[in-house]
Sequence to fold (440 residues):
Amino acid sequence: MAKRRHRKRYTGPDLTAHVDLGPGDHFEITLGEINDAGDTTAVTEGAPVVIAGGLPGEVVIAEVLKRFPERIAAKVVQVLQSAPERVEPECQYFLTCSGCQWQHVSYGHQLELKRNRVQREIDRYECLSHLEVDRTVESVKQLGYRNHGRFTIGKRDDAGQVGYVNAVTRQFLRIEECLLMDQPINDTLKLVQDRMDGQTQMSVRVGANTGSILVQPRMNISGLGVVTGEQHYDEKVRGARFRVAASSFFQVNTAQLSRAVDEVRELLDFDGSEVLIDAYCGVGVFSVLLAPYVRRVIGIEESASAIEDAELNSSGVENVEFIEGKTEVVLGTWPESWPGAAPGADIENGGMDALLLDPPRVGCHPDVLKSVKKLRPKKVLMVSCEPAAMARDLDLLCRDGVYRLEIVRPVDMFPQTRHVEVISLLTLQDSGDQDFGDNR
Fold:
């Protein structure tokens, strides 16, 4: 699952005050490497510049968007010398919107850029750097894949209009159609456009395989044929139906989520005898879809609404159960917190053969990693949407030789953007002495 990160405020020296460039000014520049935010980097008059819409080695005319003390933010407005990986963006709002970073990049090169980013994070750590990251698993759809759209409602002169806010300039942009969205989201957008006066935000979630739709918040827009304020919608993944509460997390790319389930099953290589712990399990997608391949699945989730969904979604699946609680707390008292174990039970590997970790963007709580190293499940598989946090957590699990990193496989959940999902597999190297007493 993912949660928003708060950027740290820059407190260093002013690096751009001496440069005579302001918003709207144009300048010629040769572009350097792509940073983790998906922008190209460069230097002008000794000042750092980040330029959206470019590729390394290109010579471009850039327009200043905003000047910060630590950098000048700009966008490409004309390409004088183009890179071979450049393609024509399909979206009329590209670079004005800021939601997509790489619509100007060929899809094959997007996959390579994402793999390279993950490799850089892995290579930062000595005990991980032996591993070569796999090729990125491509998305079936490169456009029209998002099942969840979050929109901003304009104010003052833009009141009632639906759109996005540019991440750099903070300017509102009216949107008629977002090419990343599944069609029902764009259909809803057209119905409500110019009719949202009095609102500040709107979220639309759809079941790509069910036609179910959820529009939040509850609004008085009668006569448009749009039902708002419902608490759930339904989706199908690999033939299984999942109810998802308005407050619950669900992957935005349903087709690629199905691919990710296949990748996880392949990497864990079940023989049918295993007990699988699905930590941060959300509404139970992995728990339900992996249940046929193991003896037992135990999901852990702190969200009450997600647990309620998971219980419903696993109805009829006899070898799945769920524990409501924070993963760091549940694993910290394991196996006493396991419904199938008696207090004080001494069970090899804590009774878990495989542990699936799908933490929020910030990564695993430090106490989760401590518990993993104490409980020592035979296999640990991590699903992450933030490569830097993932690499940090993998290093903590591997640095003393208890675990070895075997596979890192990027999965492209977010085409046209810098974001990437990553699946990593670790195997236990040294079983050591087990102690499943109080490890809080």
